[in-house]
Amino acid sequence: MNFGLVGRRTNDLFHVDKSGSKGEDVLSLTAVGRDVAEKFNDDMSGLTPVEKSLYRGLHMYGHYVAFLGELERYMREEDDPHEDGILKADLVERLKAYYGNEADSYAGYCGTLCERLGLIIRRRDGNQMRYKLTLPREWETTG
To answer: pTM value?
Structure first.
């Protein structure tokens, strides 16, 4: 759960057959879980360099995938798109599904790294911080 792959409320990767005690629970992969597991095999020749980087170290990137995913979901909500970004307090509430009471810490350190990488912009909005997805300058195309 701490890698951002499995949320605390939803779980698309694993199915758990509960028994009398946790030690006897049976864990199996769902169809989505099998698809992700296949990416971890030794033959990565069919993957792009970006996919190789993400899948090989998915546990290292999982926090950032969850963080950026929540930002994107918020900004693209169909009924009310939020082009100006999300307040940190609202983002923390969303991240609690992944990290519980540690959501504020994850929002802070993921926000710092993503800002330094040019993936988000953080700016003051009154006495709060607002997070907005952006396109890194290096990725922009001209022409």
So the answer is: 0.55
